[in-house]
Amino acid sequence: MSTLSLPQTSYIRDNSRTFTDWLKSWLLTVDHKRIAILYLLAINFFFLLGGLAATLVRVELITPQGDLMSSDVYNRAFTLHGVIMVFFFLIPSIPAVLGNFLVPLMIGARDLAFPRLNLLSWYLYMIGGIFALIAAVFGGVDTGWTFYTPFSSTYSNSNVVMTITGAFIMGFSSILTGLNFIVTIHKMRAPGLTWFRLPLFIWANYATSIIQILATPVLGIALLLVVVERLWGVGIYDPALGGDPLLFQHLFWFYSHPAVYIMILPAMGVISELISTFSRKRIFGYEFIAFSSIAIAILGFLVWGHHMFVSSQSVYAGLVFSFITMLVAIPSAIKVFNWTATLYKGSISYRTPMLYALGFIGLFVIGGLTGIFLGVTAVDLHVTDTYFVVAHFHYVMVGGTIMAYLGGIHFWWPKMTGRMYNETWGGIAALIIFVGFNMTFFPQFILGYLGMPRRYHVYPPEFQILHVMSTAGASILAIGFIVPLIYLGISLRKGAIAGDNPWGATGLEWKTSSPPPTFNFDKTPIVTEEAYAYPPEAAERDAAAWRPGSPL
Amino acid sequence: MRDFPLFPDQASTFATQVDQLYFFLVALSLIFAGVLPFVILYLIVRYHRSQKVDRSNPVDSNLKLELTWTLIPLALVMVVFFWGAFLYVQMRTPPARTLDVYVIGKQWMWHVQHPNGKRENNELHVPVGQPVRLIMTSQDVIHSFYVPAFRVKQDVLPGRYTIMWFEATKPGEYHLFCAEYCGTEHSLMIGRVVALPLADYERWLATPGPVVLPDGTIDTGQPVVAPTIGDPMAAAGARLFTSLGCAGCHAMAGGGVGPSLQGLYGSNSVMSDGSTVLADENYIRESILNPTARVVSGYAAVMPSYQGQITEDQLNQLIAYIKSLADTGN
């Protein structure tokens, strides 16, 4: 193929004449940008489904009695919520949508290293999702997303095997995406784009990919062994068959703790991009942010036992895991301080992505600090398996990952679609989500310290007021999630044409057209400067250009 | 709806200690989470693009600053780590003399048996001011014994014993929850812990009640608990020891096919592979259910397994009996 024949149209357009051709052009595409859009649609569908299950749970909990649904239905609702949100939304969200779209663009490549493998990842994700959906439709599963043995392997009378198969297949999608990113980042950077010129979003996705490749197989094996025990009665986890119930927890958390970092590291990458752009400044402490991502990825592998302080693991093991958990807090704190320092002497604008970034910092700080409470062994004995844990991981996973996901979607929306969304509605929705989120989950910290256990269908009446507050907050949060769907949808037809670089941002992705052409760049870009290469006077100039009536 | 608590009862020796650490963490968090948002708020208002302020000479790195905000948080988390670690070791190390109570968890109830043979379901009566040690196991899936007012929680596993201890400080009734999700009626696997002054507790313990069995039925065939005669759990264990034929090999005087069990509990035994094992509840349990796993040095691995032949309840009684053989003098 000669360079002259490269199409100059955007990746969204094609010249298919019939609907079938058009459908084929999407479902058989190997373009990373189109695959990102496929992920975007699928992942948002699963997010809404998981949200629906959460709604059932929160509505049931308005009263202390189990009056809306039976305990079996309730158990299936919270399990569906957990399985869908963790495996089919949070883990793939930022890497598969934003990462897929942006990694090649940010490093000046035509595509990922293995475009067909990338498409396979999406199909594996979809097949896994379909298994999980079938399991849910034909009776559901009641093990909780953690599948603890021997309950899941022997006692549960629900579609455990089907659901596990879904998660197992989806795991391969995750591994292949990680593999693709690592090879791409190593081998396909544009000339001049050295490691320390990479955007921090790339560093974050690189660290995430390492975790995806190294940890996901362990989950796959752990889950496969549950199926083996369930179907053939091979004693692996059930002591009645000669197995060890704790073995599952060790294997499960060896993946599922690092999985939290699969969710939060790419989110941190997004936040670094947003803060820098909307402060018109180079990011503060680039190396420290980059290496803190790697530090989190490494230390994250050594803390799984902090989920098991009351599981009967030895006191000595508890102390070691607690100690390393304390160390993980440090790189996270470093990032927060560096983001804050970036604001100093910047020229800050309150555009929607920036609001999400600031919201992220607020929620992540609370999520991170309460993580220290849980990492301290003596306090964890009291609050583990209560609503304190529920509140904590929602602050990190929802408050962190979803805020960054939405912030990133808004920030790169003009690049992905070529159009601007409505800024007023964007700001309003970001505010609603921030308020609704805190109203939903802050009361749960108090509930947890009071001793309210998680996964309770009925509960003592003295906890009701806090539960009602939480459900009220969840209703606000739900509205906050629906509003963006509407105005983003409208923007596809009515939004203002964005232009190549509506934010005046640095980064290679802004140097090509919006939406980018199929092969991203007309000719391979040559990089001569660092990431976030805003000149020292950029902030001053930006502020000087501000007039009443300019965007805030 | 009338009562609206914001803080749990403090009813054990651990409660105040855990709460002090908790409040220290809350205070640290407030310093951090209370100040940082205002710093951010100040920066985003002062340096908003509409503000005409000095933006010259922006900085994008500062090693001293990085070290400051690395080392100070590191020092602080080390303080809370060590504080928590000392308390944790204490919470996990029962004192030498405790009141032992046997707990069996099953879907979806708690069964408790006291050393004198008294049984109760979904309730646990304990004396105030005396350390209580729970020896817990599950008949099916993993459960978790959780008493929020005592700030203690311990998972209860099938196939092994887990240990938890506490000392109640305030008479009253407290929530008992199952904290590990265990299936359909998980949220109904609840009960109460009743802490009584010692005299009331002893009166309660001596009151003969119906003999509830772990399956929830009331046993009328057994003789009613007679609290005046020593130690019925151990006595029941002694009867089992004879009826199962254990005494045939494990002669008390020694010299049998198996080792004597006199003074076994709490002692260190040398195994045939040369390792040393502390004979605790879990080792005794393993030796009954899976005898060949760890055989005492000098003996042949000939004991048959009792897996599936005795219930968790009977196992508890056997262990109580074997433990009583170690109680020399007292």
Structure, explained:
- The complex is a heterodimer of chains A (552) and B (330).
- Chain A has helices at 19-27, 32-60, 71-106, 115-137, 151-155, 160-187, 200-232, 245-279, 286-299, 315-343, 352-375, 377-383, 387-417, 423-450, 464-494, 538-544.
- With 552 residues, chain A is an all-alpha fold.
- Chain A has one domain (26-540): Cytochrome c oxidase-like, subunit I domain (Cytochrome C Oxidase, Chain A).
- In chain A, 61% of the residues are buried.
- In chain B, the strands form four sheets. In chain B, strands 3-2-1-5-8 form a five-stranded mixed β-sheet, covered by helices on one side. A five-stranded mixed β-sheet of chain B has the order 4-10-9-6-7.
- Helices cover 32% and strands 21% of the residues of chain B.
- Chain B has helices at 13-46, 63-92, 198-206, 232-243, 281-289, 312-324; strands at 99-106, 109-113, 119-121, 123-127, 131-138, 143-147, 152-156, 162-167, 172-178, 191-196, 211-212, 218-219, 268-270, 276-278.
- Chain B has 330 residues and is an alpha+beta fold.
- Chain B folds into two domains: 8-39 and 64-222, Sandwich (Immunoglobulin-like); 232-324, Cytochrome c-like domain (Cytochrome Bc1 Complex, Chain D, domain 2, Orthogonal Bundle), CATH 1.10.760.
- In chain B, α4 packs across α6.
- In chain B, β11 (211-212) and β12 form a beta hairpin.
- Chain B contains six helices and 14 strands.
- Chain B is elongated and about 95 Å long.
- Chains A and B meet through α3, α5, α8, α9 and α10 of A and α1, α2, β7 and β9 of B.
